[in-house]
Structure formats: C-alpha cells, structure tokens
Amino acid sequence: MRFVLGFDGGGSKTQCALMDESLQICAQSRSGPSNPLRVGFGGALAAVCESARLAMQSANISAVNIAAICAGLAGTAQPDAQEKMKRLLMEEFPGKVVRVCTDLELSLESTGDGPAIVLVAGTGSAAVGRGQEGQILRVGGHGTLLSDEGSAYDVGRRAASAALRAFDRLGSNSELASKLLQATEVSDWQEFQLRANAVPDEVFPKLFSVIAESAGQGDATARELLHQAVFELVGLVRDLIGRLQLNDRRFLFLKSGGMLGRYPHFDAQLDRHLLEAAPQAEFGALAISPAEAAARVAVRLLPQPSAAQG
C-alpha cells in the first residue's frame, strides 16, 4: 500500500492529511505557518516537515512508505517561489513525487467540476474561481503590502492604527484599545509597536477575534471595522464574478478560512452582502478540507502500475 501527504499551508497554520492510495485518511495533523513570503522558505519548510512528522507518527507510518506529496501553500503563486519550495521539498523527501501549488488552488479543487468561486478569508484574503469554460482566475491574495484587504491581518492592523490614533488624540485608551493591548500581551503602545514591527504576522491576525467579539457586544468602532472588512471581501467576489462572466450564470459559491464560522455577527453580515452580490450563486460548504484535497491530488500523481506488472 502506498501513502501520500497533502498539505494546506497559510500565514497562521499548516494542516496535513496522510492518505492511502484508496483515498482513506490515515492521520491528520497541524503545525505552524508555512507561507514562505511571511516566514521565509526555511520556516515554511520546517512547518511542512513538522506536520508531516506528526501525521506519520500518528499513523505509525515511515517516510519510506510515502510515495507522493502535494503542498498547497500561500505565497507560492510566483513561479520562482513555487520552484524553490518544490526543490526544498524534493531535497527533504528524496525519491517522492512532489507538486507545489497555492492554497487557493486547493480550495477550488474541493469544489468538483463546473463554475465555482471560493472566497478565502483568513490571515490573508482572496477569491479564486472557475468559469464556464474551465478558466481559472483569482482576485487578491497578493500579500499584506499590496493586498489581503478584509483579511484578519488587515482588520487587526486597522484596529491597532485606529486605537493608537485615538490614544494620541485623547491621551488614554478606550476599552477596545485596552483589549487589543491585552491580547498582544503588552502594556503600552510603544511595546506594541516594537512587537508588531518584529513579528507582524503573530500580532495583527490574532486581533481579529478581539474585534469580532467586541462587535458582537455592540462596540461601535469594532462594528465599523467589521463592516469595512465585509465590504472589502464582498468586493473581491464581485470583481471575480465579473471577470469570469458569471453575473447571469448559476455557479457554486463556497467560503473558507479562519475568520469564518466563529463569530455570528460577522458571519451574518458577510452572508447578507454576499447574497446581494451573487444572487445566482448556489451557496454550499467545502465537501472536503483543503488538506484532504491536496492529498487527493497527490494520489493522482502516483505512478500507475504497467500492464505487465498488473
């Protein structure tokens, strides 16, 4: 029996699915972030290898039994980044068939065939879709400097900026600002800035939970921040519907990412505006996880036995 590893990696975590060639999940695991643009290629490789180790350990399967790997990682959209990550994985897993793609491609892989759009709302943000003729396009997902609008990182950065500006104006912290500092485990804004400059990916995305919870409790500033995030995320979907020419077509619409399914106020607001933006869409849920989708891709990479061997 041959086995494969599928990875779904982003700015906050890496998930691994270990699967046999009959498509049965043998083990699943989780490790740290593996977006090479955020944590570097060494950090991304370490996270992928750690999740692989944990999954193989859980299933009591040796690396010698792994035949193929598919790693869907954020930050690998550019060919040079993709090739470098593939080379590193081939060195770490010699003799294995290796494919590297983006995490967005994995999300779309989970939708099956036909026109579909997936909105990814997590540490970063993007929308990826497949049109009537099978063409695949994405909107967003270009990183924190130029993109990721409406993402957890973006909400956290906006929240911290607004709180710091209010502190400069008033000389004291609001209740929301105090919660932001507490969540970051710092005592003041000077310490916050030092930490945010050093490890922004560990600071800003985690502030989304503070904003979402505060919005649910009626905080006006938090609600405005979430409203802006919803506006940005729905904008990604609107743009992609237009580019794929799906305005008057039925298509499958799915959502994925760590911002979703935990905060009723945010989910309800996002869903309401998505329904307005995509009235022709059939809203559904991912049938399988992106990590499982990656593992299924890896199974398809397995060399098929020759007729003589069969």
Characteristics of this structure?
five-stranded mixed β-sheet, 310 residues, 11 helices, globular, 19% strand, Nucleotidyltransferase, domain 5, alpha/beta
Lateral strand order in the biggest sheet:
3-2-1-4-5
Q: Give a quick account of the main beta sheet: strands, pairing sense, barrel closure.
A: 5 strands, mixed
| Beta-strand percent range | 15-25%
CA-CA gap between termini: 15 Å
Query: What fraction, in percent, of the residue positions are helical?
Result: 40-55%
Number of strands: 10
CATH class of the largest domain: Alpha Beta
CATH-assigned fold name of the largest domain: Nucleotidyltransferase, domain 5
Q: Rg to the nearest angstrom?
A: 21 Å
Report the principal-axis shape. Answer: globular
Number of helices: 11
Query: From the coordinates shown, what is the CATH architecture of the largest domain?
Result: 2-Layer Sandwich
Low-confidence stretches: none
How many domains make up the 3D coordinates? 2
Assign the CATH superfamily of the largest domain: ATPase, nucleotide binding domain
Order of helices and strands: EEEHEHEHEEEHHHHHHEHEH
Structural class: alpha/beta
Average pLDDT, all residues: 93
Task: Explain this structure.
This protein has eleven helices and ten strands. It has 310 residues and is α/β, with parallel strands linked by helices. It has two domains: 3-107 and 289-301, Nucleotidyltransferase, domain 5, CATH 3.30.420; 112-287, Nucleotidyltransferase, domain 5 (2-Layer Sandwich), CATH 3.30.420. The strands form two sheets. It has a five-stranded mixed sheet with strand order 3-2-1-4-5. Strands 8-7-6-9-10 form a five-stranded mixed sheet, with helices on both faces. Helix 4 runs antiparallel to helix 9 (220-243). The chain starts with a strand and ends in a 9-residue tail after the last helix.
